[in-house]
Amino acid sequence: xxxxxxxxxxxxxxxxxxxxxxxxxxxxxxxxxxxxxxxxxxxxxxxxxxxxxxxxxxxxxxxxxxxxxxxxxxxxxxxxxxxxxxxxxxxxxxxxxxxxxxxxxxxxxxxxxxxxxxxxxxxxxxxxxxxxxxxxxxxxxxxxxxxxxxxxxxxxxxxxxxxxxxxxxxxxxxxxxxxxxxxxxxxxxxxxxxxxxxxxxxxxxxxxxxxxxxxxxxx
Length: 219
Description:
Elements: E1 3-5, E2 22-26, H1 31-39, E3 43-44, E4 53-55, E5 60-63, H2 72-79, E6 84-87, H3 91-100, H4 113-124, E7 128-135, E8 138-148, E9 151-159, H5 164-178, E10 183-187, H6 191-195, E11 199-201, H7 203-213
Parallel strand pairs: 1-2, 9-10
Antiparallel strand pairs: 2-4, 3-4, 5-10, 5-11, 6-7, 7-8, 8-9
């Protein structure tokens, strides 16, 4: 039996998560609810026109910034400075590109207008970050996620030219490593993230990382 949320801004304990990774259903995407969710490693992922589904998978798929893997195929891109990277210049545009870019094996997208609006507001408040990848004046790739304390929660990425999103992700990981970030939460595994050094850690270990590295006021 699943836990259904009401108007109160609360969640069941992450340890109550189902084997599927689903923790709760319902609620809304208010800023306060989203901030509370991410502080405990909970994130929304659902189809449009369906109730919001809140996930907290165990084990958790992550990349440690100081261990990011740079595939040999990417060395030339960095050596030749193939692309340029900026941060938080065009957050909403990046989310929109993630929403609209077709993906192999997927029919449609989970990123709806409510997601775009709520996460853009998080960005305005300093709780979400975008990475923009440029080829000259053309935006050719990027990614966005939630940025709390010393943890980055990756949400989605897009690529319009070869390896553009991978270039952006590696650039971000290097920057986060320099700034002392503990982990990049990848939420769900895929071959793309595996090639960059993705690994599973126990849910309890992930929660320990969150407790040690989230913002002071929620410790």
